[in-house]
């Protein structure tokens, strides 16, 4: 899908055709749309394919008149086995247009559209557009990191009394999310440094303060992701031991219950054998045997409680 946006008074208005200094927003393009980008806008097809590759790393380069960046952005997918992943977002800048390409619908592009007035985003200032993209991406990284931390705290309470691997497997998926975030944020940091040293930073309208804000937010996201990852790694090791200990406690309790039940079973078996035992004609034999069995079982329970085995 391709949408055309035109800057107007710190906001974006949707248009039907390409205009000068417009923003071309491309999401999950078809082969026809890829042909349009290549033929009409002269974007190299290999760069478009790079952006659509989910494993493509962040980078910045100059190619055939386009200043080209790929940044990794966070994405939340409820129906995915790993709920938080990162995907590449390509930003192409020329003298006449800005093109963004992503294989998925994402919050970063939506925020660039809806928060244009608040953040003063405009295609007339390409450097500001790029830096705002970095800044919004870092903000969403931080937001998703807080959501991941909430999920971890919820599953932590369940793990304290769990004997299953289900919760531990969920923690492992959260750890994968953090690994994706850390690697993507570090790659974005390198691209930010590349932007700082590029020709685009030499323009008079380049906002150094905005660049510093983007770097600070990105660095904060890296530090937060590292902290959560370190905490979770230690927590997973601890809870793996907790699950094993919980299983041992259950097996111990079941063994003690079996021993207690064995006492009346043994007595009933002795007096249930078809041999003379002196109680065949006693009217109180059954009551006496049951009473002795119960008393011995209670003594066994008290014995185990004394040593705190129960």
Architecture overview:
This protein has a seven-stranded mixed beta sheet, sandwiched between helices. It is built from eight helices and seven strands. With 310 residues, it is an alpha+beta fold. The chain is rod-shaped and about 110 Å long.
Number of domains: 2
Principal-axes shape call: rod-shaped
CATH class of the largest domain: Alpha Beta
Task: Give the number of helices.
Answer: 8
Main β-sheet, spatial strand arrangement: 2-1-3-7-6-5-4
List the helices and strands and how they pair.
Elements: E1 2-7, E2 12-15, E3 22-27, H1 31-39, H2 45-52, E4 59-63, E5 66-76, E6 84-93, E7 97-102, H3 107-114, H4 116-119, H5 126-159, H6 166-196, H7 208-271, H8 285-306
Parallel strand pairs: 3-7
Antiparallel strand pairs: 1-2, 1-3, 4-5, 5-6, 6-7
